[in-house]
Amino acid sequence: MKTDDGKIRKKVVVILVLHRHVLGKVANIGLPLQTNFKAVCYSVKLKKDMKKLLSLCIFAMLLTFSANAQIKTPQPSPLAKISQEVGLSKVDIEYSRPSAKGRKIFGDLVPFGEMWRTGANASSKVTFGDDVKIGNTAVTKGTYAMYVTPNAKDWSVIFYKNTSFWGVPGKDFSEADVAAKVTVPVVALAENVESLTINMDNLRNNTFDIVIEWEKTRVSVPVSMDTDSKVMSDIKSQMEGPSASTYYQSARYYYEEKKDMNMALAWVQMSLDKGGEKFWIVRQKALILAELGRHKDAITTAERSTELAKAEGNGDYPRMNDKSIAEWKSKK
């Protein structure tokens, strides 16, 4: 029996690696086109469909590449981040900046009497590196969402603990999450501000303003921080010289490394003078005295260490002192 060449169907297996969801069917042979190409097999007639197959493969590859390409376009309200050193701390603000583009803003696009996210997209956020006061309200360091309720003559400004909302909290608003709330006056600007601008101005050692400007409106939120106390504490510490702990650590190191024992003795005494008698520091003094060959003084000092240790319920140091005293008595 003759085999009809026209009836001979040789099959070619074509494996296409496609990428993501089903996009549709291509050509007349009904090949499903996917863009996360799993192995897709299709059988075609060798003689009649080879051209069609080749065209199909090229088309599928081009379509795949175009499906994967991502067109990047400018954001209508681009993200802005500003960071400012204020006093001895840092303040960061992150917000999106919409532009007016010929629109009326306050009282229209941003209605009066309604809470606003102070920008576009996610709510604007302010991060304080140290504790601050907003108005007369103490606010602990951390990140807060900044919401405003604009009115013609003044704005209500809220610093909100829950920063997870994309826009305003709406029905989920909770007074318990209000870290601070202030009312600030509106200042009319002579020049139009096209894009929303949030900045920090009037920088002083202990105070600054968070300034919001858009259209012909400007509001300023006063913020203060206790920079003075930090500076005064640092000045006092530096003027008083090293701490009792620093003197003790220095004396112990000199003793352990067998350096200048007279210097070690002077430092351990400075530690006791500044920080008071501590049984472990008094023992350290006894050890240094012994190293200097002053065993009688070392014994007296170790006995004082024992008294102090027992008064505080410590049993280890009396045992160590007794052992040292026995050794030093043999050397007197």
Description of the structure:
There is one protein chain. The protein has about 325 residues and is α+β, with helices and mostly antiparallel strands. Helix content is about 30%, strand content about 35%. It is built from seven helices and twelve strands. It has helices at about 50-70, 225-240, 245-255, 260-275, 280-290, 295-310, 315-330, and strands spanning about 15-25, 30-40, 80-85, 90-95, 125-130, 130-135, 135-140, 140-150, 155-160, 180-185, 185-200, 205-225. A hairpin with a 3-residue loop joins strand 8 (about 140-150) and strand 9. The longest helix is centred in the first third of the chain and has 19 residues, at about 50-70. It is elongated. The relative contact order is 0.07. Residues about 1-45 have low confidence and may be disordered.
